[in-house]
Write a structure and sequence with these properties.
Order of helices and strands: HEHHEEHHEHEEEHEEHEHH
Number of strands: 10
Largest sheet: 5 strands, mixed
Helix content: 40-55%
Strand content: 5-15%
Strand order of the largest sheet: 4-6-7-9-10
Number of domains: 2
Number of helices: 10
Structural class: alpha+beta
Radius of gyration: 21 Å
């Protein structure tokens, strides 16, 4: 059975139920949830706590275009013909346990998932921009890599490069860049600068849009965005959106992703990573 690491959080217990139902394809009862919470927390949960979990799952069920679960009165049941994608499972794992260890792999995987979602949303183009960047190619000059990266973005979007931030700023808060080009390739297009956070995101600063308008002289200012693998509740949605920009939470990301991936390497890496994480969570 998958470990429940934070039994006192309605959101984390809801993540645990989603992940358990998706991976076992078996129902989970309210009594089972109460037993697991009691075992993990050391005290029996109140009926009000369990009711809040069921309400949150009902809210999530409404958000998903094709939910993998169905909330009943006393059980959460799998939708047996639902498509359980590795992207969905990976987002659930990040939401449940955060990002463990020092490897950059989880963050880069989430950036690649977000890129696909942004590209689908815009029906345009999107790239992964976030640091750490790809390894330097032989023969590169001494110009800082962040400067070359921003210059390339400006060139690709036909915008005017002005300057780059100091190299210590890494990607300057931008992990994915999306845009909707016009046929005529002139400027004045929709541009989206997205910060991606697979781990703890609530204290994370949004994209510093004023700074990015200093690096590139945009014909029309970009829109800032923020991507997380969690579900953001309705009570927090307005404030989070005002603070961090256009929100891409788990529901939006999964709803946007095509059923059949056009990135086989990402699918392979995700499936391998998800298997490893599930094995660790079940240990």
């Amino acid at each position: 059975m998958i470990q429940l690491l934070n039994p006192n959080s309605v959101g984390r217990v809801s993540d645990w139920i989603e992940l358990t139902v998706a991976t076992t394809q078996e129902h989970v009862s309210k009594a089972q949830v109460g037993s697991v919470v009691e075992s993990s927390a050391g005290s029996e949960p109140s009926e009000a706590f369990l009711t809040d979990i069921w309400r949150q799952l009902e809210y999530r069920q409404r958000l998903y275009r094709n939910p993998t679960f169905r909330v009943m009165d006393r059980t959460v049941e799998p939708v047996l013909d639902a498509h359980v994608s590795p992207e969905y499972l990976a987002c659930l794992i990040w939401s449940l346990v955060g990002v463990q260890g020092t490897t950059q792999q989880p963050g880069k995987l989430f950036e690649r998932i977000t890129r696909k979602a942004v590209e689908e949303y815009l029906s345009g183009h999107a790239i992964v921009f976030g640091w750490p960047f790809e390894p330097e190619t032989e023969g590169e000059d001494e110009e800082p890599q962040i400067k070359r990266k921003i210059k390339k973005v400006a060139d690709d979007l036909k915008e005017r490069f002005v300057e780059a931030p100091p190299a210590r700023f890494n990607d300057r808060g931008v992990d994915v860049i999306g845009w909707i080009p016009f046929y005529d390739r002139r400027t004045g297009q929709v541009v989206l600068l997205v910060q991606c956070t697979a781990g703890d995101w609530k204290g994370k600063q949004p994209v510093p849009l004023d700074n990015w308008c200093q690096y590139i002289h945009w014909t029309r200012d970009p829109v800032k965005g923020f991507a997380v693998p969690s579900i953001i509740m309705d009570r927090d949605w307005h404030e989070r959106s005002r603070e961090k920009g256009m929100m891409f939470d788990r529901a939006r990301i999964i709803n946007l992703l095509p059923r059949d991936t056009n990135d086989p390497s990402l699918a392979t890496e995700l499936e391998s990573w998800v298997r490893e994480q599930l094995d660790d969570l079940a240990a």
